[in-house]
Amino acid sequence: xxxxxxxxxxxxxxxxxxxxxxxxxxxxDAAVRPAFATAGRRRAVVGAHAALxxxxxxxxxxxxxxDTAWLVAPLAVLLVLWVVATGTLNGGTRGLLxxxxxxxxxxxxxxxxxxxxxxxxxxxxxxxxxxxxxxLAEAVGADGLPGVPAVWVLVYALAxxxxxxxxxxxxxxxxxxxxxxxxxFADEFQDGAADGAG
Length: 198
Prior knowledge:
Helices cover 66% and strands 0% of the residues. It has six helices and no strands. α2 (39-66) runs antiparallel to α3, α2 (39-66) packs antiparallel against α5 (150-172) and α4 packs antiparallel against α5. The relative contact order is 0.20.
């Protein structure tokens, strides 16, 4: 994934709001960069986030269906881990999907569009395959199909469509360069934001 460059300071830094600058600082926290330093680590982070998403949704649906109070404890733990993993993904992609368009340069915008296009195709294929399995099983009269309320089908579909771009962006991210995001560039952004506020 293309990283910010000095060719164009964060898209249009002069139009950046206080919110934009705050989100940018969070999304460019150097603490999460080691987790995305190599392709193997990126795949591990994306895989962990996908697994945590499935586990969280499964635990939530079981809590809904069985109304078992003890499931609240593992659900709370899963939610905390999921939030941390989501933050790691967003930081690893430099906020590609969280930052406003004006905070991205042209190459980052192209990367975001590419990730969105690939995610759309992947989510469509996944949902189509799942629908096909259920339709085929119903057609041949297979027994033991899980009785899933329509609301949970929609929840799982929404989660897939919502998170697929983030997973794709994480997998498409590139290795961090040796001269990664310098302090000088951060100062340049701050100067540009100050000029815009002035």
